[in-house]
Design brief:
By secondary structure, the chain is an alpha/beta fold. The relative contact order is 0.19.
């Protein structure tokens, strides 16, 4: 199942994005989050991705972020100043398009 994300991901769009991701994770064992249209993202979106990743791990499900090396998402991780294991996980999940479990 692929979830398309709009051009702007911020506090005002967060509830809809969160709901779409969690609803699909409840139904499907694997989802793709399509960030091809994202041109602006804030920390709210990164929080949603991290929470969704943790939820998916607990439920033995997978999430992929597409496309690989999305510049808006990679920039967000850098601006957030993430370091250590969380940064590595986010960078792998968001920058490579790799599937995380």
């Amino acid at each position: 199942m692929t979830i398309p994300i709009g051009t702007i991901t911020n506090l005002s769009t967060a509830p809809d994005i969160r709901e779409a991701i969690l609803d699909d994770l409840k139904i499907h064992s694997s989802i793709e989050i399509d960030c091809a249209s994202v041109v602006e993202a804030d920390l709210t979106f990164l929080q949603i991705l991290v929470a969704a990743h943790k939820f998916a791990e607990r439920e033995s499900k997978t999430i992929s972020i597409l496309p690989a090396a999305d510049p808006a998402i990679a920039s967000l991780i850098e601006r957030a100043g993430l370091t250590g294991p969380l940064a590595a996980s986010c960078t792998n999940l968001c920058a490579t398009g790799a599937t995380e479990q």
